[in-house]
Specification:
Elements (H helix, E strand, L loop, with lengths): L1 H18 L4 E6 L2 H13 L4 E6 L7 H11 L1
Parallel strand pairs: 1-2
């Protein structure tokens, strides 16, 4: 029960941030299709740029890759 609720919260957070005025954001998760849905909803809520990075953050070096790709963007 907790995992589905947490997943829904994580999907809604970027949308809420866009509604609050955040214009640029990065979304990171393992599943690209779900990230793209989240990015689309965030843009519809007012975000101008959403960088989609499908990464498994449990893998060694993944967080460093996210930082690098975010800075390069």
């Amino acid at each position: 029960m907790l995992v589905p609720m947490l997943a829904a919260l994580v999907r809604e957070l970027p949308k809420s941030l866009a509604e609050a005025g955040f214009k640029k954001m990065v979304v990171v998760a393992r599943t690209k299709s779900k990230l793209e849905e989240t990015a689309k909803a965030s843009k519809e809520a007012g975000a101008e740029e959403v960088l989609v990075l499908p990464k498994d953050l449990f893998l060694p070096g993944a967080s460093e890759e996210v930082v690098k790709e975010t800075v390069e963007c």
